[in-house]
Fold this sequence. Notes:
By secondary structure, the chain is an alpha/beta fold. The protein has helices at 2-16, 49-68, 88-101, 113-126, 154-167, 181-197, 215-222, 236-248, 264-270, 289-302, 308-328, 334-343, and strands at residues 19-21, 36-42, 77-83, 106-109, 129-132, 147-149, 172-178, 200-207, 228-232, 255-257, 278-281, 345-348, 351-356, 362-363, 368-372, 384-389.
Amino acid sequence: MRRPLRQRLFVLGLLTVLALTLHGCGEDASESSEPFRIGVMESLTGAGETYGTVASQAKQMALDEINAAGGVNGRPLEFIVEDSKCNAQDAITAYRKLTEVDGVKIILGTSCSGAMLGVAPLAEADGVILFSGLASNPDIANAGDYIFRTQISDIQVGIGTGNTLWADGIRALATITESTDYAEGVRRTTAAQFEKRGGQIVAEEYYATDVTDFRSQLEKLLATSPDALHVAPQSEFAAGTIIKQARELGYEGPIYAETVSVGATALEIAGDAATGMKAITADLDPANEKGQDVLAKFRERYDYVTLPWHLGSAYDDVYIAAECLKKTGDDQDADGFRDCMYEITWSGAIGDDYSFDEKGEVVGLSRVVVEVLPTAERTEDRKYVVLGPAPRS
């Protein structure tokens, strides 16, 4: 229980203090010692609280490192933090506060696809950078010239999941999906690839974000006797509960899922019910020393780790932003920052030599297939095994 408490304390701190900064300004601050100010929008509350919080904590850790090493061109980096709450309406409110009140032109975020899709048209029209490490809906690729992400599009999740289902002998699939942009993007791309291979979706159910009991939907799905169940949630809490309740209803078949479903909170709730579940997700390469170092430092600082790839992605985003600020020397120069993003090649926690294409989509990263371990074999750092790269064709 210590990890959720630390997350809640961190969230309270972020919501109480808008500006998170470590800067050692002297008494005679000159123009050159003024901080670079950028916005951060993550889901500190709402359906994406678990991964929004871990992303915010990873960003703060990166900022502290940068400032301890002398800042950016000798100037400190400062965050102005707003809670996007994992939905479009609250994300728009947060965006307007950052841009109209605080005057920022560069925003790191958001955690959730719905929030990203809600804010992206405003950022594009205003010429404001929106740079996400977590949002994965395929439609974000067409959001505009100022929109970037290190998160891998859910097109790869859908193709990988559909192909994995087919290769595993699944021919009749039932799906349960949260009614959000992220979850629907996962379901839609998975169903399209599965049906392309010859599979059939025999039943599908949706649920609202505030639902906590999924038995009625699951009973309808299981009545069709599917070969497998596919779960596409927005929150870890829903993911773990769905998996657990499916087993409690007597379902013994395979379960397939995505990144949220293999988070620490989801697997804690699901317990043994998640054993053997497969998911298509991004995962930090054990051979990547930078990624493993970031995880170790994060655990030492916050005493937990969840969704390590999300953590690493958020961490990398801060360092990429710092690199582009080094080049422009101006936190109001969104056009210069955009041009830097298109030109940059980066090696960090989530991979080596990745870059961004003409749509701001990350290039050079890929997803893997993982299988959840029995509870007796799970550790703080190892809750699933990687079976191999997600099949792309």
